Structures are given as C-alpha cells and as structure tokens.
Amino acid sequence: MLDLMAIILTKNEARHIAACIRSVSWADQVLLSDSFSDDGTVEIARALGADVLQTPFENFAAQRNLSLEEARRRGARWVFFIDADERATPELAAEIRQAIQNTEVVGWWVPRYNYIMGHRMRGGGWYPDAQLRLMRPERARYDPTRHVHEIVLLDGAEGTLREHLIHYNYDTLRQFRAKQSRYLLFEARVLHERGIRAKPWSPLSMPAREFWRRYVQLQGYRDGWVGLLLCALMSWYTFQTYRLLRRLQHADRTAPPM
Prior knowledge:
This protein is 41% helix and 24% strand. It is built from seven helices and 13 strands. Helix 6 (202-217) runs antiparallel to helix 7 (224-254).
C-alpha cells in the first residue's frame, strides 16, 4: 500500500513539469493524469520516474475524480494534488508527512502563495488562497456540477496546514488576460445551469460589486498598481460574464418549444 501519491493534472506542461515533479519527489509515487499532451510532457515525466495515466479531458472535476479512482485502485492511503505550475517546498513536504499520520482528519487545506507577473500577491482573493489538496481518496470526491473552481466533498473532518504551496500562475499580463478570456463562456454557462438569472442591470452592478469585493474587502490595494490592475480586470471579466449570461437567457426565451 502506498502512503502518499502525488497527482498532477497535465495538458502540454513541458515548461513546468520537471520542476513540479522534482518538488514532490518525496511522495511514494507521482502520477500524471494527462490529457494526451503532445509537447513532450509525458516523456519528461516518465524520464523522472512518474507514472502516466492518459484520459480524454472532460472537465477538471471529472479529471480529478478519475484520478481519485486510480489512486483507490492502486491502494494509496493519501493523495496530494498539485498543479504543474505549482511547487511544494521542503517545509510543506515535512508537514504533509506529519499530517498523514493523523487518523481523525481526512482532508487538509494547503495555503498558497500566488506569483503574478513576478509579484507575490498579498490580497485581492489571491492571498490567502488555501486549497483542499491533501485527502484520503476513499473519503473524497469532487462535485461533478462544478467543472472549474472545483469543490471537494469530504466525508469526515478537515484541517489546515501552515506551510505554503508556491503557484507561478501568470508570468505576463497577456497570459492572465488570455486565461480569463477562455473561462468567460464557461463561467456564464455554469451560472446559467445553476439557475442564476441576470437582471438588466446585472452587467453593471455585478462588476462594481466584484471590484469592491476584491480591492477593498479582500485588500487588493495591498498589492499596489498590480492589485489595482488585476482587480479592475476581474471586474471587466465579470461584466463580460454577465453579458454572456443575459444572452443565454435570451436564447432560452426565444427557443422554439419542444
């Protein structure tokens, strides 16, 4: 039986994968849950001793649930999810090794430092940024209705670690904008499926609320001009999301009856 399996979800992560795998080399096994990368990710991982499971990508929640099933099949007692652009520090490794000896807790939140454009974020929703990543595979699953920003459903007690994951999520503003733009329609569809209805004024009121939440309530101002810029951009993407949600609602109203 494996005490601890580290799992990395990948799709063309050749740039990051070697450093990520090395940062979890203390795990008993490293498994790539790969969506048919074609940039050398798989070859690099195998050369570093990682196992590779390749499955078509449906959504993040489904991919993580498939990974949990594989961990259960292999007899892993604990699973630690880490993204390719994240790094586990030696201090976090030592704390995780201690935490998995706890027989009462079935899932652990891990705080995370986010680096955006070389700046370690201090507020705005990017810090503190705890992620539920360490879990007993037989006592955890991901909510299948949350395709992005996944939510873990735990059967048991949870705890929070002290040491941090390091997340190198956006090197440039262009990367930040490209990723947020890719999520727009997806986010609007999630809201639509959850039955959230946008009022005529929502594309204006919700962005204002989002800016206030991130910049003031979540202290985005602590990050200076970077915080101001990112909070403003998140407000803009909220505007775009609710504009798309209004279009989806209009399509429902004008669709011919079945």
